[in-house]
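Morning F.,

Quick status update on the modeling queue. The single chain you submitted on Monday has been processed. Sequence for confirmation:
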Amino acid sequence: MLEKVLPHAILKAKLNLESRIRTLKRDWTIVYDLLNLMWMLKQL
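Structure tokens below.
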């Protein structure tokens, strides 16, 4: 029903969610890399 009333709202919400997902992936990749680096340094 919302798509009929506000067709562009769905598209904007989808783009916003996709942007947030990309940001979260990037942030978690940084955290993952830092944890791996700490683990590798601990092994030395």
